[in-house]
Amino acid sequence: xxxxxxxxxxxxxxxxxxxxxxxxxxxxxxxxxxxxxxxxxxxxxxxxxxxxxxxxxxxxxxxxxxxxxxxxxxxxxxxxxxxxxxxxxxxxxxxxxxxxxxxxxxxxxxxxxxxxxxxxxxxxxxxxxxxxxxxxxxxxxxxxxxxxxxxxxxxxxxxxxxxxxxxxxxxxxxxxxxxxxxxxxxxxxxxxxxxxxxxxxxxxxxxxxxxxxxxxxxxxxxxxxxxxxxxxxxxxxxxxxxxxxxxxxxxxxxxxxxxxxxxxxxxxxxxxxxxxxxxxxxxxxxxxxxxxxxxxxxxxxxxxxxxxxxxxxxxxxxxxxxxxxxxxxxxxxxxxxxxxxxxxxxx
Length: 347
Known about the structure:
Elements: H1 4-13, H2 17-25, H3 28-31, H4 35-48, H5 51-64, H6 69-81, H7 85-98, H8 103-115, H9 118-127, H10 148-172, H11 184-188, H12 194-205, H13 209-220, H14 226-236, H15 253-258, E1 267-280, E2 283-290, E3 300-306, E4 320-329, E5 332-341
Parallel strand pairs: 3-5
Antiparallel strand pairs: 1-2, 1-4, 2-3, 4-5
């Protein structure tokens, strides 16, 4: 006779999630301290659309076993459904720390890169496509053999759609910048800085906002006309804040230190160690020892501030990655923190 967990898994493969939940709930007193039980019940709730109950089950499972790739994938899926892509990305990076070749985490990161905006994710949730990024359930035993070929073709079309369509979609979704094209007067008064401005527009169309910001800074730091500088500032209002997964162009500490004014308001992804950690309510700040994650090469020290406190506490004894916007305080480089990541692996 099959156990309740095996019965539930069979029902889930048959897409009978309500039945799976019922079978497992009847055995709660027997399996309450079981990782497999809590994880399977959470997965059934997730597929049934009850993310609140799913989250509670996954948290219970995590207290029993913290480093399980499928559990992390499930918890990431909940954050993905809610549009909290930064949090989802942290879970996917944790999975890749545990299993560097994990295909589900890699595929999910590609999805976030291509479909990371909240409205698009809502559409995927609404039409059910978001389940492509849930832990797989396996084949449905109730499906008849003669539709297997049709399903395979459909999966192939879906694969091609996910991997090729987003690139065109992302570019076409950018704002209309026709009003920011240089006029004849702007071009006449550009004083040699026209190339930098036009390059900024091109980078923007390529979704390389970090590079576009650098070229905008060239314009703002030049002797360009007031009108041209106003257009450059207007372009900045269209830039999007990146995540760890979507930052296409990173800059090193040495680059920023050498010519800081050229990189103001650019985003950087720097790793290192934390010191002088301060936390007060919804405010977090610390010194980031850039490049010192292996305790060998210190590239520099920058103060990082967050206007929120991460869900996970920061361990000063472990390396950390910070995504932040470059700013200055006096003559010192500082970062306005956007995201922070620290591996769950023991060092």
